[in-house]
What does this fold into?
Amino acid sequence: MKLILSLLVLFLSVNVFSQGTAVWRPASKESQAYHESRVRPSVPPYGLVKVKELIAKIKVDEEDNEALGKAEYEELSFREKFTYHMIHAESYSQNCDAMPPIQNEQKKIFAYLPDAFDEYDWSDRQTAFLQKNRDSIIALITESMTRSKRIGVNYKHAISQINAKEMIPFLIATYNLTKKDLDILTLLMQMMKDNEYEPFLMSPYYRKLYSEESDYMSYLNYNKGNEDLIIKKAMEFYNARNK
It folds into this structure.
């Protein structure tokens, strides 16, 4: 089934571009390098070899989901389960839309994070694990970020999934180390949006990124003014929730 869908995507892509309705233009090396950094995960070390061996043995079901059996899953320790969830998503959900390369990706603050697992999403079992163990997940991610000085796309999705608002100052501090991971700014905006923070909902940024006229690829141009305003709004949101 995956092969058929993949071939369909390829056929549609070739057909569309051959008719001249879109131009498939390679992105610059700088843009490509930034894209690769955007989709790079953080890989937990806890039982990593064991977890990878178990994942390799998973049998795909009739809907192309790839879930570890209940018995094997329950035998994993908490930290091993964390590793499993951070490197493997169980639910198949392919998007058949072919997207041309993004131009100047390093100069854009996107409305949404890139996919963490390509054609897969976390299953209900996996999201339930993250939410049930919210405080411990925050602690493990914070520990990893402190050690590596970066945050992978999978950790960003986990933070969004568990609505880890208390991490906002740490996220900003991590961003300020290099000021290159613009998806941290995206994550801050997504948290303000998901928590319906009114000053953000009333801003022109919100209308540009999340209104009915916007789409998944909507973005703000990266500049110091936008950077400063997003951080300022995020800290105001953080401080408001602590009053």
Q: What stands out?
A: Residues 1-21 have pLDDT under 50 and may be disordered. Residues 2-6+33-241 form one domain.
